[in-house]
């Protein structure tokens, strides 16, 4: 099998006449240290400061029909490199030393020295994407008209319109919802005409306190969110949103309903390497988020309305679309480290998706 390197996704085999005569050996990087000797004490004190970047040298050659300009351009680069003796890993590299292309032309051989960073990463692993289902409440399209009032649900949106000739009760079916013990909040946001003439409950089959989520109903407020909190001690099932609408009120408004769990949620991520990793994580959501790793809180994120933010543990930066957002993150980036094997990321707050890159790392 021929030797091969891949620089930034381009194989050396694509360059006519270029031969990779030898590959660099696989090495463990050197540990940087501070060594202190103390009078009257045997030995010394060694403080580990981290792993050093180092050089990898390999030999290239020429065969027939080569284009030396293409080869010079190929090695006038930096980025990622894959060696065929480690086909599933990549290094971050720069070429800082000169390459004697005159020797290559005269003797058909020359050395290339790459300066590589101490860690290598998988070129097989892809971004881990975790979609978080925060919205527990869902319903199919539905229309009901009673006493001149119409409740219309379509594509997850609710609209209430008309003028009621009498006090009106409408039961809008929801997809049967079975909630486990825990803490939950139902948020209702209405906007338009006549909002405050409408009250709602989430119920099993009748609008009594005993069968209502949270044991109560709420009256909507125009342009504001009203909420019902409930702590369930056992399993509960809900089948309807119940509307009570005051008579003789003209209304035409939209209503958003959102049911979320308030309990801590978690995902599992595995570092498949042989050394701790400092990943890149993008979080989608809103509001304030408390993020923990393996049971210890590491970040408080004031995401607000930003929609998403990227936290880079290696660079110790937070950003969105290349713009720094460090002011939104409180915590110690040094603690954002994935151990070899299983890790648990947990949080409280509104997260809809988490993407994680560079979660495995090797020496």
Distinctive features:
single chain; 363 residues; mainly beta; Elongation Factor Tu (Ef-tu), domain 3; Jelly Rolls; nine-stranded antiparallel beta sheet; seven-stranded antiparallel beta sheet; 28 strands; 4% helix; 55% strand; elongated
Kindly describe this structure.
The chain is mainly beta. The chain folds into three domains: 5-122, Elongation Factor Tu (Ef-tu), domain 3 (Beta Barrel); 142-261, Jelly Rolls, CATH 2.60.120; 264-357, Sandwich (Jelly Rolls), CATH 2.60.120. It has helices spanning 68-75, 101-107, and strands at 5-7, 10-11, 18-20, 31-36, 45-51, 54-62, 78-83, 89-94, 109-122, 128-131, 142-146, 149-154, 157-163, 168-179, 182-193, 198-203, 218-219, 225-232, 236-245, 250-261, 265-271, 280-293, 296-304, 308-312, 317-320, 323-324, 329-331, 341-357. Strand 4 (31-36) and strand 5 (45-51) form a beta hairpin. The model has no long low-confidence stretch (mean pLDDT 93).
Short description:
With 363 residues, the protein is mainly beta. It is built from two helices and 28 strands. It is elongated and about 100 Å long.
